[in-house]
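The pair is set out directly below:
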Amino acid sequence: MYRSLRYQVVFSLRSCHYCNRTSSSWITENVFSSNNKERAIKIMDQVHPLRRMLKGLKLNAAVCIPMCTVNNQPSILFTLRSTELKSHRGQVSFPGGKWQEGDADIISTGLREMHEEIDILPSSVEVWGKLNPIPDYTKTIAVTSSFM
C-alpha cells in the first residue's frame, strides 16, 4: 500500500561536468547498459565487509538505490519523509526498512519496502546487486543497500 505521507524526490545527474559535454541519449544508453551493469556488479563484489562495526547488531534492514531516467537523464530516486511520521521525519532517504518475518532475503526486504513506500512493483525492478551491510546512525541496525 502506498504511504500518502511520503513523496518522491529525484536527484538528477544533469549538473555534472561530464553530462554537460555529452549527449543525454548516449549517457542514458551507457549508464544502463549490460556492460556497465556487469562492471558495477564486479566492483560491488570486491568491496570488503565492515566486520568489526557490525558485531553485536541484532536487527537487519535494507534500502534500495533506484536508478532511473528523468527527462532522458540518468537519475537516482530519493524519498523525502513527511514531518508527520513517527521516525526519521523530514529526512531525505532511499526507500527501505526493517526485515520482517516472511521476507525471503534482504533484497526481498528492500523490494517489499520500496513497493509499500513508493508503489514500485518488485516485478518491475532489475536488481544489479547489493553492497555489504553497514550500521545505521544509531549503530543498532545493519543496513544493506541494493542497486536497481
